[in-house]
Write a structure and sequence with these properties.
By secondary structure, this protein is mainly beta. The protein contains no helices and 46 strands. Strands 31, 32, 33, 34, 35, 36, 37 and 38 form an eight-stranded antiparallel β-sheet that branches.
């Protein structure tokens, strides 16, 4: 494997990144012999062998010499340095090496200026007997015949040490065969092959390493024939251990490829067994034929992604368009999607493939083997454990006689109306202000809402927070039964994000008892969210506020209550047959809030039951989604 890389450092397997250079600079201490041409052109070559395997540093001449001893079965690494020793530039630099095909061949087209050096590495695998690697170099001057250097040699003998007989390693490199390189599943062998035509500027590779022996392996390392500037496949893979029979695989890529071109990558893997020298696998090669990504004229494909809009996601009929839309409110933690793919062009398509942006869905993958002109294919897929508003995006790809055709992306959103966090509070003595905290991260665009009171002071209570400022006071308000104080519903839509939570300040016009609850909800409309509301007061154990005006299905229903005495405990009620979910409350339940995340259509009532009779003050409010 002859490698020429535009960097200045090389480290062998097991020692970190392998950087194999193409150097156009003077290397101090590199010997050269020359054959002088009549034109004043000459060229020299130096062949050296790594003497400190498995670690050889390119810039450290002490790692390289004219001879070394290695255990039988080792991989031997050579450093070949070619110098323009003349006074004119040379082109078409070639190494002549009859004994090692990996070292022989074209080195650089040049020009190689006088005094400059081009260097590369190559290797001999599974060396079991002594050998000498002898090479010469040839270059073309501006005029006259080619010039050829004298030969240079380096030798290897076999040491008494032997390779661990229980150690073995193999490697396979493959190229992604799918039109969209990110669609290749690293666990699906059908997506990968030793050669493929790629219609993309990025080539995606898969490297699979297997411990074929019975001993564990450590310090697994991969070398590649491609430069680090050309891909990221080479380097230390895992410290291990890679146990007997174990398999480790990863993906890497070559970016910014200009078609048309052919890219061939050869890799080897090495590792450290419990005894003996490092072992190296046989090499593996894969080839990508990169072609233009422009599909033929007349090719067209579209994708449409929609979310089920019914309360029961499983009840959506895939053939009934009325059941599906680009946005829908979830009443359960599962989102069901419909994907509709159409051949919008004038040529038939094959190998229809969909890609989606959510890792936890089953919407992406192979769809159908063919799609005729004008034909439509559709399928359903789902996302489980949806706890917040989620947008998915799908694109479709189809193969043609040339480059594949890809649709524009299509998006749909599953709206989750959900409680994020909340808190309840009360003061034991009159104060003019009180701060309470929502300690968790606050999401941008969420709704902040609260039922807040001040008792035994004239004027109105106000609410603000440390991130957004003042909250909106709604018309939903009342006083305590003795006609004093102030109780009101406050809200703030489209809150700014705050990773560290926020501090809420409740302020009274004079010293007063402060009491209430606040909460954060996601999935609520960010503009004019308040729809319907009702307030009520009473004395007893049955709490009921409302009914409100009729609301459409899916709205958030927020209900809260305050009590003048100790209610003992609060049992949530229901609205339109749906039971409220209890949220924040004080220790005595004298301030309490509850909600229904997605309303059944119709008027709504805020209902609860107290275990001990006392005066109560309640609100119910619905918010658009």
């Amino acid at each position: 494997m002859m490698t020429r890389w535009a960097v200045s450092r090389w480290r062998l397997p097991g020692a970190g990144w392998l950087l194999l250079p193409v150097l156009l600079l003077a290397l101090a201490g590199v010997p050269a012999t020359a054959a002088q041409a009549q034109t004043g052109a000459s060229i020299g070559i130096s062949v050296q062998v790594c003497t400190t395997a498995p670690e050889c540093y390119w810039e450290d001449d002490s790692d390289w010499g004219s001879t070394t001893a290695v255990p039988s079965g080792s991989t031997v690494y050579w450093r070949v340095s070619i110098t323009n020793t003349g006074s004119v530039a040379l082109t078409n630099i070639v190494t002549n090496d009859a004994g090692n095909a990996d070292c022989a061949g074209g080195v650089t087209a040049g020009p190689l200026q006088p005094g400059q050096v081009t260097a590369y590495s190559c290797q001999s695998d599974d060396v079991t007997q002594a050998m000498t690697n002898t090479a010469s170099a040839t270059g073309t001057p501006p005029s006259g015949p080619d010039v050829t250097s004298s030969t240079s040699s380096a030798s290897v003998t076999i040491s008494s040490g032997s390779t661990d007989p229980n150690a073995g390693i193999s490697v396979v490199v493959q190229v992604c065969t799918l039109a969209t390189e990110t669609s290749c599943d690293p666990t699906n062998a059908a997506d990968w092959a030793s050669s493929a035509t790629v219609y993309n500027t990025t080539v995606r590779w898969r490297v699979v390493i297997t411990n074929t022996g019975t001993d564990p392996l450590t310090d697994v390392y991969v070398t590649s024939s491609l430069a680090p500037t050309e891909n990221d496949c080479a380097g230390s893979v895992t410290a291990g251990p890679l146990n007997a029979g174990g398999v480790f695989q990863y993906e890497c890529e070559t970016d910014d490829v200009t078609p048309p071109t052919t890219i061939t990558q050869t890799v080897t893997a090495s590792a450290d067994p419990p005894s003996g020298p490092f072992i190296t696998s046989a090499s593996s090669t894969a080839t990508a034929q990169v072609e233009s990504d422009t599909p033929p004229a007349g090719a067209g494909i579209s994708a449409l992604l929609q979310i089920c809009t019914l309360a029961n996601q499983a009840a959506c009929d895939p053939t009934n368009d009325a059941d599906w839309a680009s946005s829908g409110t979830l009443n359960q933690p599962m989102a069901r999607w419909r994907v509709v793919i159409t051949n919008t062009g004038t040529v038939d398509l094959t190998n229809i493939y969909a890609t989606d942006t959510l890792a936890q869905t089953d919407c992406g993958g192979s769809v159908t083997s063919s799609l005729a002109v004008g034909a439509v294919t559709e399928y359903e897929c789902q996302t489980n454990n949806v706890t917040q508003t989620t947008t998915n995006q799908v694109t479709a790809t189809g193969d043609t006689s040339g480059a594949p055709v890809t649709s524009s992306p299509s998006s749909a959103t599953a709206v989750v109306i959900g409680y994020v966090q909340g808190t309840a509070f009360e003061t034991g003595s009159p104060v003019t202000s009180l701060t309470v905290t929502l300690g968790g991260p606050v999401n941008a665009g969420d709704l902040l809402v609260g039922w807040v009171a001040e008792y035994n002071a004239p004027g109105q209570v106000t609410v603000s927070d440390s991130v957004n400022g003042a909250w909106t006071r709604s018309p939903a308000a009342e006083t305590f039964s003795n006609g004093t104080g102030d109780i009101a519903l406050f809200y703030l839509p489209d809150t700014a994000a705050s990773a560290n939570g926020l501090t809420i300040t409740i302020t009274a016009p004079a010293g007063a008892y402060l009491q209430g609850s606040v909460a954060e909800y996601t999935g609520v409309a960010t503009s004019s969210p308040l729809d319907q509301y009702a307030v009520a007061e009473g004395n007893g154990t049955t709490v009921s506020a409302g009914p409100t005006g009729s609301v459409p299905a899916g709205e958030l229903v927020y209900s809260a209550l305050l009590t003048g005495g100790n209610p003992g405990s609060v049992t949530p009620g229901s609205s339109q047959g749906v039971t409220y979910w209890p949220r924040a409350a004080t220790g005595s339940d004298s301030a309490y809030e509850q909600d229904i995340s997605s309303a059944v259509a119709g008027p709504q009532t805020g209902a609860a039951t107290l275990s001990t009779a006392t005066d109560w003050y309640a609100v119910v409010a619905t918010f658009r989604t």
